[in-house]
Amino acid sequence: MSTSPKLFERLHEEFRRRHYAYETEKSYTRWIKEFIQFHHMTPPRDLGREAVEAFLTHLAVNQRVAASTQNQAFSALIFLYRDVYQRDTDWNLDALRARTTRYVPTVLSREETFAILNQMSGVPKLIVQVLYGSGLRLRESLNLRVKDLDFAQHQIVVRDTKGRESRVTPLPDRLIEPLTQHLQTVKRWHEMDLHQGYGAVVLPYALDRKYPNANRQWIWQFVFPAKSRNRDPQSDQVGRYHFHASNVQKALKQAVGLAKIQKRVSCHTFRHSFATHLLHNDYDIRTVQELLGHKDVKTTMIYTHVLNRGGRGVRSPLDA
Questions:
Q1: I need a labelling partner for 264 at 20 to 30 A (CA). Which of 93, 153, 171, 214 fits?
Q2: Tyr recombinase domain: from which residue to which, for each copy (predicted)?
């Protein structure tokens, strides 16, 4: 399709202009490519509401995707038609929607949590400790900058959040010393990079234009940088991006196996466990909501269902 390169250039420019996260850009671009392929490489500008309906129905019926996955695909297409093509997207879609499933998140006990952590080491362990100790999402942890760690106040300022609203969460006492030692190593890397003519880091929201020299300052460096320099896919500059998520996920998977935990554990499980353990320790639901950065307390309420399951909330008649 001859118009594809130009289209994806426009998409890239619009993502940059609106400061979308790189992960969002990748997922939206993938859905738009799938949409084009589904319609036999027809240029999207020649399609509209009916084509979107057909694609979303295909995802629900043929691919049997989850509701959240279908919604992400829909958001990508809304972005394409509303923000790139400047069209009215107030559509009354008649697409078959994927079934929304209500699930109870996997939560680890404290014993299981530390059994897994004891099988980990190095930077992956430190990152997972932050996920559990402070309730961060994996992406939030990887995007932390040096200035976001407040050792004096024992808190972490989470700025690059899912809803783009900053929040404050506790920095565990147990992590003060290992994080301090880790940052000493990171600072040596940064000083070496500066000496070799590098040391610039990508700044969020085009702050590099507002503060031209800030990208080489120590406080703006990633807390968990990559071990080697590479070319950033967004800015095209060479420097140290943050530690790759897949490295944490691989280390965690191995640790779960070694700890012989018979649960489906992901990085997000530690955020679930953070919230559930706080509620178990009688912290107020509103406090937990604020620490997690949930806009609606209903989202946080899912963890009360975890607490009330099984023997904690109902006594089995077999034990009566």
A1: 171
A2: 103-316
**Architecture field, domain 110-304:** Orthogonal Bundle (1.10)
Helix axes 285-292 and 267-280, enclosed angle (nearest 10): 160
Q: What is residue 113's three-state secondary structure?
A: helix
Give the domain ranges of the chain. Answer: 4-84, 110-304
Q: Is 29 exposed, middle or buried (0-12, 13-18, 19+ CB in 10 A)?
A: middle
Residues 6+ apart with CB under 8 A from 98: 59, 60, 64, 65, 66, 67, 69, 70
At 166 the pLDDT is 87
The per-residue pLDDT for range 16-61, each reduced to its tens digit, is 888 787 888 999 999 999 999 999 999 999 998 899 999 999 998 8
pLDDT tens-digit map of 139-151: 999 999 999 999 9
Provide φ and ψ at 25, rounded to 5°. -60, -45
Looking at domain 4-84, does it have CATH number 1.10.150.130? yes
Amino acid at 195: H
Task: For residues 123 and 271, give the distance between their C-alpha atoms in angstroms, rounded to a whole number.
Answer: 18
Q: Rounded CA gap, 89 and 87, in Å?
A: 6
Provide the annotated active-site residues: 137, 162, 268, 271, 294, 303
Among 34, 128, 58, 49, smallest CA distance to 81 is for: 49
Q: In Å, what is the CA distance from 245 to each residue of 131, 142, 154, 219, 272?
A: 13, 8, 25, 22, 18
Residue listed under structure tokens 């620490």? 291
> Is residue 312 helix, strand or coil?
helix
